[in-house]
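queue> pop job 88
queue> type: inverse folding (structure -> sequence)
queue> payload:
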């Protein structure tokens, strides 16, 4: 099920029609209030979320989605007005998985949805990942440092999991943006450095497992 939050009736109906025609179930909503009402009874595979909406805008709605446990990991694609770089960057930093600039073609929308769903489909991993005193359980989305649970944001968790699944591998900032933020990022790569910094702080003594490879990117030590 795909939820489409769009206040323009003609665009919303075309989105739903297109998604139905390619095999997805889809429901449309005019506002955040309607969306959260529906979320009380059903969790979608993905949410298409327009930024310009009556009442709460899409950025405020995205913040609420990421704060709620039930929707913190639900993929979200933001629809932004063409050229609004600030909205795009803000949405991605708050946890959006991709964005589409209006006006966009319906088949481009379908392609982006398929790509995001491929990236965010759960991977069944039975074993926990361990590096030194650090443990990550992909099934429960928990992170332990010396046996104590650490609370991470979704992006911090995805960064850490990427490193722990590939110990010793060096990732450039662009590679991390693509893997964790889910798109070819055209703005500043500084956002990776900021998230790495907060992640290291939260991991305490295990934060130094993440090494800075000067002029290249980052990696996690394989043997600590």
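queue> result:
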């Amino acid at each position: 099920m795909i939820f489409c939050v769009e206040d323009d009736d003609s665009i919303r109906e075309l989105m739903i029609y297109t998604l139905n025609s390619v095999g997805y179930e889809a429901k449309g909503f005019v506002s955040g209030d309607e969306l959260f009402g529906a979320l009380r009874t059903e969790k979608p595979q993905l949410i298409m979320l327009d930024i310009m909406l009556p009442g709460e805008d899409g950025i405020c709605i995205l913040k609420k989605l990421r704060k709620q446990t039930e929707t913190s990991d639900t993929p979200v694609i933001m629809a932004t007005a063409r050229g609004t770089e600030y909205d795009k960057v803000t949405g991605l930093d708050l946890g959006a998985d991709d964005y589409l600039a209006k006006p966009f073609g319906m088949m481009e929308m379908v392609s982006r949805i398929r790509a995001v769903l491929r990236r965010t489909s759960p991977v069944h991993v039975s074993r926990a990942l361990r590096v030194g005193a650090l443990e990550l359980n992909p099934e429960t989305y928990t992170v332990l440092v010396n046996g104590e649970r650490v609370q991470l944001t979704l992006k911090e968790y995805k960064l850490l999991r990427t490193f722990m699944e590939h110990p010793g591998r060096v990732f450039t900032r662009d590679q991390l943006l693509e893997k964790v933020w889910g798109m070819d990022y055209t703005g500043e790569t500084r956002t990776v450095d900021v998230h790495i910094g907060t992640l290291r702080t939260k991991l305490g003594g295990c934060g130094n497992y993440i090494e800075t490879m000067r002029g290249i990117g980052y990696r996690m030590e394989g043997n600590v």
